[in-house]
Design a protein that fits this description.
Blueprint lengths: L1 H5 L1 H14 L10 H20 L7 H22 L2 H4 L1 H6 L6 H28 L5 H4 L2 H25 L3 H14 L15 H4 L4 H12 L7 H25 L3 H4 L1
Helix pairs in contact: 2-7, 3-4, 4-7, 4-9, 4-10, 4-12, 7-9, 9-12, 9-13, 12-13
Length: 255
């Protein structure tokens, strides 16, 4: 951790470079940060409000407060899994803590999510539901928990991808299936009781529930939900860190 702190300027530089280069050359530029999730919101809302209607009140908000966190999580994994390979020239030429690379990718996606929350707050205000000050105090906590979870999984996948390149392509299918196993586009209440146990194994389940409690139901998440999310976040972060530390020793040789 001390070594990573010493390389904090490198992390900041990589994050800044990624944010600047993400939409470089496009006409709308950084506005795509807000346009992309809004377009996804429109598509899903039309599908589940017109074609396959649900009985969820203000479905657009129910979806949006879960969709933005999910986009952060899935993009962290899919983009971050190939982060070491993408920076192979850097890895082979100079010494620095290899953890810097996945950390910078996940942090870049996290900053992108924070900017999107400007739109979320505007949509919540427009909906008329309002904000619960006590619940909003829990929002930074659940954001940090999701960051730890995303970083842990990204450390794990980015290290394994160096040795098993097919994982980069497999993760596209995995994240799609994972999204449908997570109550992003639907309410957890519609999940049959006999499958609830299976769904409870999903580490993103308590995270999405907490976001929805805070921003859709305007209530403080249950202590069990927060505790479960925190424990899972710590578990995956430690697991990812251990695996990454073991595998990083031969990155230069494999690349």
């Amino acid at each position: 951790m001390k070594e990573l702190y010493n390389y904090r300027q490198m992390i900041f530089s990589l994050v800044k470079k990624d944010l600047r280069g993400r939409y470089k050359g496009s006409v709308l530029g950084f506005l795509w940060t807000f346009i992309n999730p809004l377009l996804q919101l429109v598509v899903y809302t039309i599908v589940f409000s017109v074609i396959l209607p649900t009985n969820i009140e203000k479905y657009y908000l129910h979806l949006f407060v879960a969709l933005i966190p999910w986009i952060f999580f899935s993009s962290s994994i899919t983009v971050g899994s190939s982060s070491i390979i993408a920076q192979k020239d850097l890895v082979k030429k100079i010494y620095f803590p290899r953890e810097v690379i996945p950390i910078s990718y996940v942090t870049s996606c996290f900053v992108n999510m924070l900017l999107c929350f400007i739109v979320i707050f505007a949509v919540v205000a427009f909906s008329g539901i309002g904000f619960n000050p006590a619940a909003l105090l829990c929002l930074p906590l659940i954001m940090i928990v999701e960051y730890m979870l995303a970083l842990g999984v990204t450390l794990l996948t980015s290290a394994i991808t160096v040795y098993f390149r097919d994982l980069e392509h497999i993760l596209g299918i995995v994240t799609m299936a994972w999204m449908y196993m997570t109550p992003v586009m639907y309410s957890v209440d519609i999940v049959p009781e006999k499958y609830r146990g299976l769904f409870s194994l999903n580490p993103m389940m308590p995270v999405i529930q907490a976001y929805r409690d805070i921003l859709y139901y305007a209530r403080v998440p249950k202590l069990f939900t927060l505790t479960e999310a925190f424990v899972l976040g710590i578990f995956f972060l430690v697991l990812g860190w251990i695996v990454f530390s073991k595998l990083k020793k031969r990155f230069a040789e494999e690349l």
